[in-house]
Amino acid sequence: MRALIDLIIHNKHWFVFLLLEVISLVFLFSYNGYQKSVYFTTANDVVGSAYNVISGITSYLHLQEENHELETANEQLRKEVLEMRQQLAIMGQDSIKRLPELPLQYNVLSAQVVNMTLHKANNLITINKGEADGVRPEMGVICSKGVVGIVYMTSRHYSIVMPLLNVNSKVSCRLRNSEYFGSLVWQRGYANISYVTSIPRHAAVKVHDIVETNGFSDIFPPGLPIGVVQKIGDSPDGMSYYLRVKLYTYFPTLREVSVITNYHSPERRMLEGLTDDFTKQDSVLTYQDKIKEQEELRKKSDEKKNEKERLELEKIKQQLEKEYSASMVSSTTFNADNASTDTVK
Amino acid sequence: MNSIFLSRLLRLILLLLFQVMVFNHIHLFGYITPLVIGYMVVCMHRNTSRTEILIWGFVIGLIFDMFSNTAGMAAGSCTLIAMIQPVLLNMLAPRDSADDLTPSFHTLGFWNYIFYVLLLMLVLHGLFYLLDAFTLANFLLTLISIIGSTVLSTLIIVIMEFLIRPRKGAMYHM
After folding, report:
1. Residue pLDDT, tens place only, B65-117
2. Whole-number Å distance between alpha carbons of A287 and A293
């Protein structure tokens, strides 16, 4: 026993070493999909605010570029306003009544990038808006030029975004003016080059075609620009194209982004969740149960409605009967009068 | 709270500041990013207890991980070099040297010191980038990252050492 304790005391650095290595590996492996680990990343409030200060200093370095960009955007918007006014003036003369305005399909929330990596295999961006501002995981993030990425995890005031520049990112996309869709993946290397896979060989693809989102994923609305085809290659199996795409978003100077906050529809998600569980027997049961439940609810509401209608009908009936009886009374009195007159006669 | 502890704490804060604000933004050729935080372990003097070295290495790695979203990667790598450092230092130290020898050009000799730093950096970056990639596909890219970053970090640490301890016999613990 004493020898054992001696051994442990003598070699305690080995135990410390193993303990620390195990702790680091646990951090490493539990990082993915484990929301608590947000405390050990840049979404941590302390680290996040430190980065906020740093980026507040460094943002001055890019002011000129940013200004220039804003100016061009302004110019374009002004032009658009003018065009729209003209259009409106023409439309105003039209005698056909237009449809009432539909509610906007999605809201955007602007945010600033406070930290970003570009040259690792798993690049992540930290932005300074979080749950308190309505940001949730799996919301789309865009900037003035195009798509940026998808929100990966959130804390109260900060969120981590998985940009297109991440080997795990996969965004479904299509070629503009064509119905063929593929998925956008990234390979470690360049910060403005991505690849589109699984576009079929019979699709007519040209260099300088525009790649845009296709709205399948319900993260991005369809038609947002992603990039432009730079080179057309074949996939290793030869069954599809492998397109090299130059991204519109220029990540190294990215600062202002927008989060799409309400495009994500919970209804669709629930429906797809149901079909995901469909393979399991008990989930089929729950599915059927759910349907039954819904049917019962509907029945109940129908019954309520029927009851209401019945009550209403009865009320009307009673009223009618009252009126009817009243008229009957009057008619009988009338008859009686008649009779009396008759008798008088 | 002795002076050695305080000077190490100061060193930890300075190294982290440099690493997070300057060296994390170096991406030479797109692949090479030096991890200067390894210097924390490199300049531990000889009769420091091994547990202490391990804990300093782990702490600096962990804080670095928080700042650069690399959960556990740098902490694991720094702990590994903290385990190797005393052994390596004992091997390279001259026979009749002081017990609490601080590794530097003057105590180890120029080439011995460079070899010492290079080896520790190789282990540090090797583990770090292997954990980052976590696959042997594209191994050439990982290898370029490892070797390039090792050389660059060694260069930076040697320059830092020159700036901090320019004269022979200057023996403060920084």
Report:
1. 888 877 788 888 999 999 898 888 888 888 777 777 888 887 888 888 889 99
2. 10
Residue type, B160: M
Is B153 domain-assigned? yes
Say what the pLDDT of residue B105 is. 81
Residue B169 domain-assigned? no
User: Which of these, A244, A247, A213, A208, lies nearest to A227 by C-alpha position?
Assistant: A247
B chain contacts of residue A17, beta-carbon cutoff 8 Å: 54, 79, 82-83
Which range of residues forms the domain containing residue B33? 3-86+98-164
Question: CA A191, CA A176: separation in Å to the nearest integer?
Answer: 23
Q: How far apart are CA A253 and CA B31, in angstroms?
A: 19
d(C-alpha A77, C-alpha A159), whole Å: 30
How many angstroms separate the CA atoms of B11 and B29, rounded? Answer: 29
Residue B14 is assigned to a structural domain of this protein: yes
Cβ contact, residue pair B80, A122, below 8 Å: no
Assess contact for A148 and A125: CB atoms under 8 A: yes
Amino acid identity, residue A218?
A: D
- Angle of helix B50-68 versus helix A12-30 axis, rounded to 10: 10
Check CB contact under 8 Å for A17 and B83: yes
Chain B neighbors of A188, CB-CB under 8 A? 138, 141
Question: What DSSP character marks residue A209?
Answer: P
Contact at 8 Å (CB) between B43 and B102? yes
Q: CA B56, B62, B65, B67 torsion: positive or negative?
A: negative
- The CB density around residue B47, as the number of other CB atoms within 10 Å, is 10
* 10-residue stretch averages of pLDDT, chain A, 345 residues long: 81 84 80 51 69 79 84 85 79 51 60 85 87 85 86 89 88 84 86 87 85 80 86 83 89 86 64 62 57 81 83 82 69 48 43
Residues A278 and A282: their CA atoms lie apart, in Å, by: 9
Q: List CB contacts of A104: < 8 A, sequence separation 6 or more.
A: none
The structure's pTM equals: 0.50
DSSP string, A108-156: EEEEEEEEE--SSSB--EEES--GGGT--TT-EEE-SSSEEEEEEEE-S
Selected residues 315-344 of chain A with any CB under 8 Å from a CB in chain B? none
Q: Which tops the pLDDT comparison, B28 or B112? A: B112
Say yes or no for a CB contact (<8 Å) between A119 and B27.
yes
CA-nearest of A183, A167, A189, A168 to A242 is A183
Stated as kind and residue range, the H or E segment containing A314 is helix A281-344
Return the closest-CA partner of residue B100 out of B24, B41, B171, B23.
B171
**Distance (Å, rounded) from C-alpha B88 to C-alpha B93?**
9
Number of domains in chain B: 1
